[in-house]
Amino acid sequence: MLSVQVEKTLGDFRLDIAFASESGATVLFGPSGTGKTSIINMIAGLLRPDRGRIALDDTVLFDSAAGIDVPPHRRRVGYVFQEGRLFPHLSVKSNLDYGRWMGGHAADPVAFAHVVDLLDIGALLARRPGKLSGGERQRVAIGRALLSRPRLLLLDEPLASLDAGRKAEILPYLERLRDDAQVPMIYVSHDATEVKRIASDVVRIEGGRVAATGGVELLG
Amino acid sequence: MLELSPQDWIAVRLSLRIALVATAVSLPFGIAMAYLLARKNFWGKSLVDALIHLPLVLPPVVTGYLLLIAVGRKAPFGAFLADNFGIVFSFRWTGAALACGIMAFPLLVRPIRLSIEAIDAKLEDAASTLGASRLWVFVTVTLPLALPGIIAGTMLGFAKALGEFGATITFVSNIPGETQTISAAIYTLTQVPDGDSAALQLVIVSIVISIAALVAAEWFARRAAARLHGN
To answer: Residue A205: how many CA atoms within 13 Å on its side-chain side?
Structure first.
């Protein structure tokens, strides 16, 4: 279980958020510019909250009162960015292996084959990110995050940079990922139709605050 | 054709050795400095920036003289280095390498700094979420992506070190076989009667080395760029 309670002032915008996520896919839903990305950046350790506490199961990732701030590379949180952020100088295969190398794990051909199958990226392994389409790039980015053995997967509008056709291409993979259910997901989106198929819980964010929590009915 | 005297050859070899050592030794410092200037904010940053650019704008003689005052045999720091570590710069080829390294430093740092600034810091964030510590992010993401700039900086620094004259001759003089580089040898030849043809020979060698360095750097830079942008 992930529990988040954070406060952060960004310029004249104030973020004051508290929510918990049990499992499956929790969607942080709300219009653009309401601080959703900042929230998952704080969970990943890329942005430091002013105050608060973030805990994943029984591991405290951040606690301002106790002076705990685990650096991002020790949080074991997989992050799928809006723009993919694949390493341009590495092949797709090396991008996928990157998290395993950094974690110092031995090769796990079964896990690798499973993720490659799940995302259908077997044909892309030898290519460079520069030669991939937008949809392929996002699938590889999802695979790369999964193969770093995360305890939690963060997805920041992973489909936002894609056109409708490409979105439809990736959505089924995300559904499979949720039903695979080995890793809980936090999914940020402003697009209700996109996340309707994926969400198990919804946290609606408005103006830097939690406006409501519940199920898919919140997606209106 | 080229007919270099043994002394000329000594000057050519010495120039290459001095320029190579100066470039190789300053490269790690140059990369570290470029990274600090590109990625970090710290107190006194603009002062540090101005200091490393100083050799570019100061008269080389002034830089050479400052070195003499700072690390010459009779200077307190120079004596300290000589007594405790056996490191002597004055009137040695190592001193020439030090002078060349300092003169070349701003030219070495600038392209590396620009290429690091051009790297999307978000890629470094992505690497950290995948479990890479800061050092590993630097080694596996920042360094390879900055490679074209590192090659350009190395090449510029080497070219500058190879041609350096003013600071070197002021600091370590013009001793054949120890501190007399190609430039100093050419200068010496122009000061004696009938030295012109011998000077011209060294001028040709100097041009050939410079062009070879340019071509090599271009080739490496192309390969690096090709690697970065996929096959």
So the answer is: 27
Q: Does A131 touch chain B (CB under 8 A)?
A: yes
Q: In this structure, are residues B197 and B92 in contact, taking their beta carbons and an 8 Å threshold? A: no
Q: Residue A140: list chain B partners with CB under 8 A.
A: none
Residue A220 vs residues A193, A215, B130, B190, B212: alpha-carbon distances, Å: 10, 10, 35, 88, 69
**Interchain CB contact of A46 with B (< 8 Å):** yes
Kindly state whether A71 is in contact with chain B, defined as any CB-CB distance less than 8 angstroms. yes
Q: How close A93 gets to chain B, by Cα (Å)?
A: 13
Chain B residues near residue A97 by CB distance under 8 angstroms: none
CB within 8 Å: A99 and B227: no
- The minimum CA-CA distance between B59 and chain A, rounded to whole Å, is 42
Residue B140 has what pLDDT? Answer: 96
Say yes or no: domain A2-219 is CATH 3.40.605.10: no
CB A137 within 8 A of CB A129: yes
- The top-level CATH class assigned to B6-228 is mainly alpha
What sign has the CA pseudo-torsion A136, A47, A182, A126? positive
Tokens, residue B121: 């810091």
Tens of pLDDT along chain A (220 residues) come to 899 999 999 988 999 999 999 878 999 998 888 889 999 999 999 999 999 999 999 999 999 999 999 999 999 999 999 988 999 999 999 999 999 999 988 899 998 998 898 888 999 999 999 889 888 999 999 999 999 999 999 999 988 877 787 788 788 888 888 887 678 999 999 888 888 888 889 999 998 999 989 888 887 7
Which of B126, B144, B229 is closest, CB to CB, to A79?
A: B126
